[in-house]
Amino acid sequence: MTELVRMEDVTFAYTNSRTPVLQAINVHVDYAEFVGIVGPSGCGKSTLLRLMSGLLKPTSGRVLFRGEPLNGPNQRISMMFQSPTLLPWLTVIDNVVLPLRARRDITDEQRSELAMRFLDLTGLSGYERAYPRELSGGMQQRVALARALISLPDLLLLDEPFSNLDPLTALALIREIEHMWYDSSLPPASVVLVSHNVDEIVQLSDRIIVLKGRPATVTAEIKVELERPRVRRSPEFLSIVDDVIVLMGN
Ligand SMILES: Nc1ncnc2c1ncn2[C@@H]1O[C@H](COP(=O)(O)OP(=O)(O)OP(=O)(O)O)[C@@H](O)[C@H]1O
Ligand SMILES: [Mg+2]
């Protein structure tokens, strides 16, 4: 399998702090892989995603994306957060095309076509001209998903994107992200998901990384070899959920 991202011996400290948040982190994400990250609150999961996206630079060590050092944000990497972070003064479609704004190689027509395609895929057809405040939380998160996908990223980084949604809405969105990831004709190729919800993580991940300690290190990695679609109440599923919970607590 080809590797998409690799973090090599990454240590990171915020400038106003002496002790690092993350230390000696070695993780990789393969092409077409779905990786889950779990760990206690405040241990550095969001920091790790920001390093992987190029938004933050390691204090030491390096991050490679497709074999090249990652020096800042990259069009081929998108991120989605807990809250949708839409611009309230822009319509749905204008929010979705934002990542393509600076792209000279794309015409206005191509931009709108791509936007319509991803609005359709995320179930938002008909809402192009609506404003974020007119939409429910789940629909706003769909807009954020369409916006994350419009640049056709290889890698989608998800930082607890379902945790503010009611369980049914969350489940619908999880299914759609899994479907898009699974369909090799659609972006993204690979996904990294941070979540406190172990069920969600086991449902989606090929591999689960447990982050723990202060500074945090990778304390465990679990391969999930259940067939997809996964049955949440099967004994095999529940046994992996238990394993993850035990590893998080130890
Ligand atoms: N901008 C910042 N400046 C200084 N310290 C920060 C900054 N952002 C986060 N931290 C600190 O870094 C540590 C890790 O934070 P981070 O947000 O990465 O954790 P997390 O695992 O994502 O937490 P949660 O599960 O609550 O989302 C915390 O102690 C936090 O206080
Ligand atoms: Mg976080």
Describe the structure.
This protein has 250 residues and is of the alpha/beta class. It has a domain at 3-76 and 189-249: Rossmann fold. It is built from seven helices and ten strands. The chain has helices spanning 45-53, 92-97, 108-121, 137-149, 167-182, 198-204, 235-249; strands at 3-12, 22-30, 34-38, 60-65, 68-69, 77-80, 155-159, 190-194, 207-212, 217-223. Strands 6-7-8-3-9-10 form a six-stranded mixed sheet, sandwiched between helices. Strands 2-1-4-5 form a four-stranded antiparallel sheet, covered by helices on one side. Strand 4 and strand 5 (68-69) form a beta hairpin. Helix 3 (108-121) packs across helix 4 (137-149) and helix 6 packs across helix 7 (235-249). It starts with a strand and ends with a helix.
Task: Furnish the topology, listing elements before pairings.
Blueprint: E1 3-12, E2 22-30, E3 34-38, H1 45-53, E4 60-65, E5 68-69, E6 77-80, H2 92-97, H3 108-121, H4 137-149, E7 155-159, H5 167-182, E8 190-194, H6 198-204, E9 207-212, E10 217-223, H7 235-249
Helix pairs in contact: 3-4, 6-7
